[in-house]
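[SOLVED] Need 3D model of a two-part complex

Original post:
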Amino acid sequence: MSKEITSRQQDYSQWYNDLVIKGNLADYSAVRGCMVIKPYGFSLWEKMQAQLDRMFKDTGHENAYFPLFVPKSLFEAEEKNAEGFAKECAVVTHYRLISDPSAKGRLMVDPEAKLEEELIIRPTSEAIIWNTYKNWIQSYRDLPLLINQWANVVRWEMRTRLFLRTAEFLWQEGHTAHATGEEAVKEAELMLDIYAEFAEKYMALPVIRGVKTESERFAGAIDTYCIEALMQDGKALQAGTSHFLGQNFARAFDVKFSDKDNKLDYVWATSWGVSTRLVGALVMAHSDDDGLIMPPKIAPIQVVIVPIYKGNDKKDLLDGKGQELASQLKSRGISVKFDQNDNARPGWKFAEYELKGVPLRIAMGLRDIESGTVEVVRRDTREKMVMSLEGLTEKIITLLDNIQENIYQKALTYRDSRITKADNWAEFVRLLDEKGGFISAHWDGTPETEQTIQEKTKATIRCIPLNNPLEEGNCIFSGKPSQQRVLFARAY
Amino acid sequence: MSKEITSRQQDYSQWYNDLVIKGNLADYSAVRGCMVIKPYGFSLWEKMQAQLDRMFKDTGHENAYFPLFVPKSLFEAEEKNAEGFAKECAVVTHYRLISDPSAKGRLMVDPEAKLEEELIIRPTSEAIIWNTYKNWIQSYRDLPLLINQWANVVRWEMRTRLFLRTAEFLWQEGHTAHATGEEAVKEAELMLDIYAEFAEKYMALPVIRGVKTESERFAGAIDTYCIEALMQDGKALQAGTSHFLGQNFARAFDVKFSDKDNKLDYVWATSWGVSTRLVGALVMAHSDDDGLIMPPKIAPIQVVIVPIYKGNDKKDLLDGKGQELASQLKSRGISVKFDQNDNARPGWKFAEYELKGVPLRIAMGLRDIESGTVEVVRRDTREKMVMSLEGLTEKIITLLDNIQENIYQKALTYRDSRITKADNWAEFVRLLDEKGGFISAHWDGTPETEQTIQEKTKATIRCIPLNNPLEEGNCIFSGKPSQQRVLFARAY
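Solution:
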């Protein structure tokens, strides 16, 4: 009973859905635009969370929790932020259901239980958090305030896709407060670096660090920094953002502090977030037509051991040896599954763990035990190796490191081969259609040109890379003078 | 600037609020009935979560995530459950805001963006989860399904209290599916045992395991098991519940499985949960008039080191020694804070960490360094000890164990002294008013008597203890025959 996966070439988008659903990462739900994250997918998210949380805490951040609801009057206080999110808000208007007199067993909203003020389900928490910071910050001694929250948020998206864009999603949102603008900018940059390090070292996902143009900025930000990744179909994916918010939210919520000279000033802010979208990025960046490919550092299962039973012949011996090997690996911090389920054949298991992207598979039969060896197969290269049981743990650790590095290098080579310069409009359009990836091109710096290019090609400016070299040139579209290239792409 | 705490005798309820607010566990929010969990309070919850999560995983449970929203038609499918929660539901009716034409800068709900079907914010997730399980369970091979979710839920309570009862709260909810009723009952009992072990071993909170009467049962359950704790004001607090749901939800959502003989039957269910309410229980069970008292096993900070500077004299030496001690303790897994803040005096810090309930405080001055000693103070007993720096780590580990045990024994002695038998109505009422605690008394088994007793005394039946001895007697209120005593109390 092998599960059919659509190939990438056949239908990239269906391939992605097949991997998510058949790889047991997530499932559709009864709620429009919301998904169920299944145990295998959730354990992947837990691994990502644990690592990110460590990195946040190592840089002095603490976790806290703020309400799910934002009263409308707070929601609208920072005007640009409100405007940006108003069109996709879930709104709570009532707090009670009563029996529906016209239909037995049915309930209806109690018209008597209307809220005086509507509550918005947080699409992001700047408003509720800055309204709270107002009570926490009086003096420079209260700064910096470095807080992160792991939470669910809701944005009523019209077109949703598993992990990549869902109405409800899980994320972390950092919200920090500082005494100076410079310090806040530094914080926003630091968090971008942490996201980039996480993406590259743990997810094996190469990213470009950059800054967004005005029209792609977070609503209410002065600057939005981002990391941009490239998927196998040549489309870009924004994998994380970090915002320098200036004093916008401090002004909206009247958050002032007295500095060392007792002078009052508004507080400076940042916010930054990554979400379960990263799971989608992971799937699309590394997987192949046989299933998922998990980078060892965040794989829920790093090694699976499959015993090859011959009926009940010496089953105990095989089970004993398997348990022993599993314990050895576990004692070194490797997450191992020893699959003793005897309802499924080895071949079915092999396909199943390939589909789930387990980095290393160890098969172990009676003959192996006699010869003191096992068969080890890498998921990324399919390489099959016969290895001695002696010293196996060390070799497995090295192999996992090699796989992590190989997956990263592969993604990096692919990505780098798809950053292409275009110097005229025809080339730009041709490259987008034929090659995809990032197109590095001159742009005249106006939102109007940016918008026209998007309308004509569906490509957006993904970012202006950090430390971008200056270079005289002419806008790919308007021909007007430009000082630097920016990165265009079609994107998720 | 010491923070005033109301004493327990003066006003128990204000004492509790003072501890929560001034101890930096939580804060009020701008949203009716919702609170903000501050970093110190959240780190306590994280410690509790981490331990519970370990215990769930060690018993074969996996985490997953289901939608925040429950469509009304699913919500009403299990009739008793729906009826139980209908009167306290937050309901999403719209998905967009637009500019309010009558007020510049204001937003209003877009009447055009009304949902076809209202969405209830989960007060508990049986409905959405069993609607999903329908697709996951076909055969006995898919069972048992042992899933847990960490999530926020909303119950529109009219009277709220920080941690103890809030409109939104954080919790975990386990939802399991089984092939037989016996297996499901076993699961519900197992999870109750895990909750009890967690409460007693980690929170140092003695609990009584029991089963609820029909009127106190979870809406939709066949049986509700519970753990009940006693607070210092003699009121009981339900600290966790585990429900045997029978086939009620399987019937409501048509979840059937084929057994080994290919016979179709409805699936059996349990659900179980504990919440941030446990933080409130912890505060009320152990703290005193000077502040919180944290059990070492879940204390966010187990040991604080306070250097006693004499101006800048040998500050570096003191800082070096403090760092060294902190590293030693950390290397043994102890969570330590070395408080080098020189804006605050030692006396202020002592009061602050007492308020925060840090189990051990180490003070270290220049004279201590000369004599190779430190001053160690226990938060629970206030005992002051001068200890040699040599071998200090081992002694600290032992001390933390002693404190954990002492806090538990103190709570146990108090609790046990407040389980009192009452054999007539006058005694029952007098005990409730004068002594509080659990009153062990006969009850005739009818919901009517239970309700009348509650109306007359505000006491409810907290539980029928597990393994309750049978004993002939007469109902405390009606005089009718009864076979066992049950535990009454006024409760949170």
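Edit: Chain B touches chain A through 66 residues (CB under 8 Å).
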